[in-house]
Amino acid sequence: MIGAIALLCLCQLAGEIIHRLSGLPLPGPVIGMVLLLGWFALMPRERPTLSAVTGWLTAHLSIMFVPAAVGLVEQGPLLARYGPALVVATMISTLLTLIVAVTVFRLAARRIPAKDEAP
Amino acid sequence: MSAILAIPIFWLVATLIVFEGADILSRRSGRHPLCHPVLLATPALIGLLLATGTPYPAYRESTALLNFLLGPAVVGLAVPIWKQRRLIRRLAKPLALALLAGAATAITSVVSILWLFGAPPEILASAAPRATTTPVAIEMAAQLGGIPALTTAIVLCSGILGAMIATPIFDALKISDFRARGFSVGISAHGLGAARAFQVNSTAGAFASLGMALNAVATCVMLSLIALLV
């Protein structure tokens, strides 16, 4: 259990260090995620405890962004001014992304057979 | 009373209790996207802050533990990606193409529409990662000079909307491939879209989780490249 938590935090720390040293605009935790993927590729084996810890974190993600969301209390003037624009932009963008991604996947899957189906 | 409010753990406890109440209501609604616990808990907590005259920085400090957990949770997204590695290898090209097209569409559409409305850079930066899962979006927006609170609100709205419109849209487009449907809703509407996809079909759910996790990386890389170039 502690080992799994240490691995996650270690990856984040390494990600933050890379972020600071390289000036890469990628957030430290995202670099950490890529590092953890690399670690899995180097050391492929079952990790039930790590899966349990990450599963617990993912299942309770919602409450973790409440503190950030409550920060809207400070954004009244901005919301009053750009609220409608934000609503319109979010709606159109969500719709467009759904349509583009599903269309590209369908076209590509039809033209490129899945690897195990190839002759 | 103000002495009690100033106890460091006070707002953490208040947040846990309010969220648990919101979660119970959300469960009673059958997890309807409009009854998302964050959507119910946030206004309630904002009301409490205003009623007690508590400044946001004090609240933020008291609830720092919850915010801190976001980092390890983001790192942990590697686990679902790794578990789907066979699927990724088998469908590499359609997945990669849909991911690139979807991530690029999500970023460019929201940013260009807001730009047309004359929104300032901090709003563009807050909205640019709108299609990624909230913890990643918060980190990315902060990197770009956005406002994390605004990002959280935009990302939640994207997820709620995506979860609600995906099935009618795909039915209207006559797309019955649950791999394509799931993957797209994961790219456009992250965890909320994936939760909805699991209600519809288990294949769609698996592809939606994959779309969410891969888009977290793809969007961050694209935005970082843009940030380096601009």
Uncertain residue segments of chain A? none
Largest sheet of chain A: none
General form of chain B:
globular
Gap between N and C termini of chain A: 45 Å
Structural class label of chain B? mainly alpha
Radius of gyration of chain B: 19 Å
What share of residues of chain A is helical? Answer: over 70%
Order of helices and strands of chain A: HHHHHH
Q: Count up the helices of chain A.
A: 6
- How many structural domains can be distinguished in the coordinates of chain B? 2
Structural class of chain A: mainly alpha
Helix share bin of chain B: over 70%
Main pleated-sheet profile of chain B: none
Radius of gyration based on Cα positions of chain A = 20 Å
Observed structural traits:
heterodimer, A: 119 residues, mainly alpha, 2 domains, 6 helices, extended, B: 230 residues, globular
Structural description of this entry:
The complex is a heterodimer of chains A (119) and B (230). Chain A has helices spanning 2-22, 28-42, 48-59, 61-64, 66-70, 76-111. Chain A has 119 residues and is mainly α. Chain A has two domains: 1-66, no CATH class; 73-114. In chain A, helix 1 (2-22) packs across helix 2. The mean pLDDT of chain A is 91. The longest helix of chain B is centred in the last third of the chain and has 28 residues, at 202-229. Helices cover 82% and strands 0% of the residues of chain B. Chain B has 14 helices and no strands. Chain B is globular, with a radius of gyration of 19 Å. Chain B is mainly α. Chain B has two domains: 1-76, no CATH class; 77-230, no CATH class. In chain B, helix 9 runs antiparallel to helix 10. The mean pLDDT of chain B is 93. The chains are: A mainly alpha (119), B mainly alpha (230). At the A-B interface, helix 1, helix 2, helix 3, helix 4 and helix 5 of A face helix 2, helix 3, helix 4, helix 5 and helix 6 of B. Chain A: It comes from Sphingobium lignivorans. Chain A: Keywords: Cell membrane, Hydrolase, Membrane, Transmembrane, Transmembrane helix.
